[in-house]
Amino acid sequence: YTLQGIAIEKDCAIVTDGHIMVHLENPSGGQADEYFPVTEGNVARVIDGTQVLVSADAALAALKTIPRKAPSPVLQTAMLAEGDRLVTTDLENVQSFEHGMGGKFPDWRAVMPKADATVAVTIGFNAKLMRQLCDYFIANGDSQAPIIKLTVYDAQSAMKLEGTTKDAQAITALLMPCRI
């Protein structure tokens, strides 16, 4: 149930479906509350070492109301308000979305590699090209188990992706690294 939510902490947001996790740092601690326009009845929620769970449905609904072009960057955010609400405004309209969720979000820190962990290799790559290769493996690979084997030799060499087609033919693809 909590995998349908977004964990908001003072300096980051985390989402996971149990297979992948995305952690987005916010070193400034978020847009400063004093910059969000004052809207009647809405008080910014203080996150002081606690974690707030925001339902994905509420976050997506709020996202649809955020103006694409705004005179101020803070208008392209939602305020986490007291009473388990997300608040958005375009300075003319104020919208509020209940986001409350119960339960406990998975302990994401337990699976996050530590800063001092030994790194085997670091390689940069073009995400669009990696996506093209993954889409190719999905379209042409074994639909029952679309597993790709990724081999990284060193930071300067191509990464090798291997899989099989629906009729068990071997597929090998290479992706060249990028400078990082």
Can you put this structure into words, describing what you see?
With 180 residues, the protein is an alpha+beta fold. It is built from 2 helices and 10 strands. The chain has helices at 56-65, 127-140; strands at residues 5-9, 12-16, 21-25, 52-55, 79-81, 85-89, 94-98, 149-151, 159-164, 170-175. The strands form 3 sheets. It has a 4-stranded antiparallel sheet with strand order 3-2-1-4. Strands 5-6-7 form a 3-stranded antiparallel sheet, covered by helices on one side. Strands 8-9-10 form a 3-stranded antiparallel sheet, covered by helices on one side. The longest helix has 14 residues, at 127-140. The radius of gyration is 21 Å and the shape is elongated.
- The percent range for helix content is 10-25%
Number of helices: 2
Sheet with most strands: strand arrangement: 3-2-1-4
Strand content: 25-35%
What summary fits the major beta sheet? 4 strands, antiparallel
| Number of β-strand runs | 10
- Uncertain segments of ≥5 residues (pLDDT<50)? none
Rounded to the nearest angstrom, the radius of gyration is 21 Å
Give the CA-CA distance, first to last residue. Answer: 38 Å
Structural class: alpha+beta
What is the averaged pLDDT score? Answer: 88
Silhouette: elongated
H/E series: EEEEHEEEHEEE
List the helices and strands and how they pair.
Elements: E1 5-9, E2 12-16, E3 21-25, E4 52-55, H1 56-65, E5 79-81, E6 85-89, E7 94-98, H2 127-140, E8 149-151, E9 159-164, E10 170-175
Antiparallel strand pairs: 1-2, 1-4, 2-3, 5-6, 6-7, 8-9, 9-10
